[in-house]
Every structure is written in structure tokens, then in C-alpha cells.
Design a protein that fits this description.
This protein is of the alpha/beta class. It has two domains: about 160 residues, 3-Layer(aba) Sandwich (Rossmann fold), CATH 3.40.50; about 120 residues, N-(1-d-carboxylethyl)-l-norvaline Dehydrogenase, domain 2 (Orthogonal Bundle), CATH 1.10.1040. Helix content is about 50%, strand content about 15%.
């Protein structure tokens, strides 16, 4: 197989669109499909072909990359794509789908003769657009070279977690990593809400922890987004973070672990979405601290 591939991307949201652009810039022939075609149309400026159906998008593809909302949405799209799939093609499944759903997707791949890679990514809009994602991947070693050009186009680093994509080792690691991201995001929103409630200048808090073990670049970048009105376009949207939080809670429950922080984060994110912040960056869960969605005072 040559390094220049025909790659189909199903799902052109925040992450999928950025991945498609980087694949095209790397010289691959890229076809995309999105449930709402209008959201995919801007990709034509980057030389990407927009298909009307999943089957049209995947026809003859060397690699199919899925970046959709969740496991059921991914399975539905692949079922619609089935007639166009080429046996022997690689499927790089990058949706954060959850452990059980990954098994279902791997079963679909097996039934259609696809080489399955469980390959969720770490990173948000900015690293996705820069091709600097970290790819967590599990799949057969003998087929990894076939997908290497795709992984290299979308990410700066690939961490291999196993050879059986259906076992979900990459997804398991992704859920662990996201549990930390969600906890840190919730804590950021709460510390700013408490600062406001107590009349404490957030800069006094930042100065207090500066340079010490409690200081975090993530805290500062997310705080900057909130304090300076940079919630849109989202790096990672509230509604998607809420979905991931629920997947984390369920993964813990299924394995005998109660995850109170993740459960509380899911509830905060869902309240923020109900207040109208669903498409904003996930740090907008800050607003869930206030029943009326009280904004930060200038």
C-alpha cells in the first residue's frame, strides 16, 4: 500500500472536520459524510469531496475513519455505509463510544471483513486543527503500517495499547484520561463560581498557587476562556463532555466502582446544556453553579 490513501471520514464535527483537513493536506484523497451536509461543505475548499450518503463516502476507501457523537450513531452510520465498504479496508474508529459499544463496532467490522482499530484521541479543537492529537490505538500489529499515514496526519503521537481493537483497551485508557479532564474542568468552574460568590478576585487565587504543585496550565487556559468570553467556538462542547461523563460513570459502575465526581460532572454539564450552553466549551458548566445561569460580572 502506498502512503497516499483514499480515506473516508464519517462525521465532520469539531474533531472530524479538522482531521479531514489534515488528511487532505497530507496528500490523501479524502471523502467525507456528515448527517447535516451543510456542516461538511466548507471542507471542499480544502480539496475534500463531500458525499451524500455514508455508502458513497466509503466506496473504494483504503481507510474509513469515524468521528461521530457516540457508539450507536457510529454503528448506524456504518450500517448505512455497508454496501460501499471494501473487504480488507481498515476502520479507524475514533469516536469515544464506550467499552460495550466498541465491542459492538468490532463485531460489525468482523462481519464485513474490515480490519478494526479502536483509536480514540486525546485533544480538543486546537490540537486537532494543528494535527497534534494524541491517538490511543489498539489493533493488529500486522496491519498498523496500513493506517500509519492516517494516524500521522491527524496526530503527533500514537500510543498503542494492544492488538485486539474489540477488547477496547484504547477506549478504556481514553475514559480514564477523560475522567481526569472532566474533574479538572468541573473544579475550574467551581473555583471561579466560589470566587465570585465570596467576592474574591480570581487573580488573587492564581497568584496564591502560582508556580507551586497546585498550579496547572489547564486551569489557567480554561479560566481564561471563561473570564474573557472565549467559550465559542468550543474546544470541546458541553453536550459532548456530558455524554463522555455518562460513559465514564457507566464504565465504573459496570466494574464495581462508584465515581461520584464523574457523576456530579455529568449532572453539572447537563444543567449547563439545559441553560442554553450546550454548544459552548465544556468549562461553561460553570454556569450550572447558579440556578439562573448568572454570568460572571465584568
Amino acid at each position: 500500500m502506498t502512503d497516499k490513501l483514499t480515506v473516508s471520514v464519517l462525521g465532520t464535527g469539531i474533531m472530524g472536520a479538522a482531521m479531514a483537513r489534515n488528511l487532505a493536506r497530507a496528500g490523501h484523497a479524502v471523502r467525507v459524510w456528515n448527517r447535516t451536509r451543510a456542516k461538511a461543505e466548507p471542507l471542499t475548499a480544502d480539496g475534500v469531496q463531500v458525499a451524500d450518503t455514508p455508502a458513497e463516502a466509503v466506496e473504494g476507501a483504503d481507510v474509513v475513519l469515524t468521528m461521530l457523537y457516540d457508539g450507536p450513531a457510529t454503528l448506524e452510520a456504518m450500517e448505512q455505509a455497508a454496501e460501499g465498504l471494501r473487504p480488507g479496508a481498515a476502520w479507524v474508529q475514533s469516536t469515544t463510544a464506550g467499552i460495550e459499544a466498541v465491542g459492538d463496532l468490532a463485531a460489525f467490522a468482523g462481519a464485513h471483513g474490515l480490519v478494526f482499530f479502536d483509536a480514540p484521541v486525546l485533544g480538543t479543537r486546537q490540537p486537532a486543527e494543528a494535527g497534534q492529537l494524541t491517538v490511543l490505538a489498539a489493533g493488529p500489529a500486522e496491519h498498523r503500517q496500513a493506517v500509519a499515514p492516517v494516524l500521522e496526519a491527524v496526530g503527533a503521537r500514537t500510543v498503542w495499547t494492544g492488538e485486539d481493537g474489540g477488547a477496547g483497551s484504547a477506549t478504556r485508557l481514553k475514559l480514564v484520561a477523560n475522567s481526569w479532564v472532566l474533574a479538572a474542568t468541573a473544579a475550574t468552574g467551581e473555583v471561579l463560581a466560589l470566587s465570585q460568590a465570596l467576592g474574591v478576585d480570581p487573580e488573587a487565587f492564581f497568584g496564591l498557587i502560582a508556580g507551586g504543585p497546585l498550579d496547572m496550565g489547564y486551569l489557567r487556559s480554561k479560566s481564561d476562556m471563561l473570564l474573557n468570553g472565549k467559550l465559542s467556538p468550543a474546544q470541546f462542547a458541553v453536550v459532548t463532555a456530558a455524554k463522555d461523563a455518562r460513559l465514564i460513570v457507566e464504565a465504573g459502575r459496570s466494574n464495581g466502582v462508584r465515581l461520584d465526581v464523574a457523576a456530579a460532572s455529568a449532572e453539572r454539564l447537563e444543567r449547563a446544556a439545559a441553560q442554553g450552553h450546550g454548544d459552548e466549551d465544556m468549562v461553561a458548566a460553570y454556569y450550572a453553579s447558579f440556578e439562573d445561569g448568572l454570568p460572571l460580572e465584568s
